[in-house]
Amino acid sequence: MPITAVTGAASGIGAALCQQLRDAGHDVIGIDRANSDINVDLSTPAGRQQAVSEVLERCNGVLDHLVLCAGVGVTAPSCGLILAVNYFAVSSLLDGLAEALGKGSQPSAVVVGSVASVQPGADKQPIVELMLAADEAAALDAANQANNPSMAYAGSKYAVSVLVRRQVHEWAKRGVRLNVVAPGVVETPLYQASTEDPRYGEATRNFVAPLGRGSQPGELAEVIRFLLSPQASFIHGTVLFTDGGMDAMVRPSRF
Questions:
Q1: Would you say residue 246 has pLDDT above 90?
Q2: Based on the structure, what is the number of domains in the chain?
Q3: pTM, whole model, 2 decimals?
Q4: Which of 153, 158, 191, 200 is catalytic?
């Protein structure tokens, strides 16, 4: 029975994935702020360390799969919180659980990114280099000073994609595959909150994929399950856009 840890397990993509994995026979360790197997606040270093410690205890130091779904959007209370959850929680859990994954059976990890990572200007923000330099205090301070939730979100998702791609050699040496899934619109509570936001709601509602709809959490969960599976055995270090054509619509000649 594969052992799989999933953050953001209590709702949205994470909840759909946990159900699918359990139905497929996985031993799932769910992680979220509440209503999960491990209840922690991933926006804090202490919460991240507790998550790592409890996962290692539950899996006896051997983990087959890791999926990092937890994330916050533009309606978060602060821009710093966006970076703390979307980037620093991801980097901390990847670092903390890499050794256990290296002992797993056909191990793999998937990070949930976003098509927002290719938003113009996302890669040019000072917060990106601060995130990649692991300077959390400076990154959060800079994000809060800039006070631009949309760009903080885009920058956090861009940075986490770069983080994954920079680690292809290190993770391959452990025998662990590591990839990013980049959704567009997913019909989750996080998306619903953004459509109701007075600052971004109209733009969010009007940004429609070529397929003419948003995706369902279960559709994204199926893609993640594929990337975890032996059928994806040679997929490593990729960013897989699962966005209904949004990326192609916005930048058709760049890929």
A1: yes
A2: 1
A3: 0.94
A4: 153
Handedness of CA 233, 114, 24, 170 (dihedral sign): positive
* pLDDT per residue as tens digits for the range 65-83: 999 999 999 999 999 999 9
Which residues in 59-88 are b (16+ Cβ under 10 Å) and which e? beeebbbbbbbbbbbbbbebbbbbbbbbbb
Assess if residue 13 is contained within a domain: yes
150 token code pair: 């949309």
- Can you say whether residue 58 is alpha, beta or left, with left for phi > 0 and alpha for psi between -120 and 50 degrees? alpha
User: Six-digit token pair at 113?
Assistant: 């990114």
Interhelix angle 149-166/89-102, nearest 10 degrees: 20
Look up the CATH number of the domain holding residue 55. 3.40.50.720
> pLDDT tens across 88-142, in order?
999 999 999 999 999 999 999 999 999 999 999 999 999 999 999 999 999 999 9
**Residue 94, phi-psi category: left (phi > 0), alpha (psi -120 to 50), beta (remainder):** alpha
Is 254 within a domain? no
Query: Residue 198 above 80 pLDDT?
Result: no
**Is-catalytic flag, 153?**
yes
Burial 23-36 (b: 16+ CB within 10 A, else e): eeebebbbbbbeeb
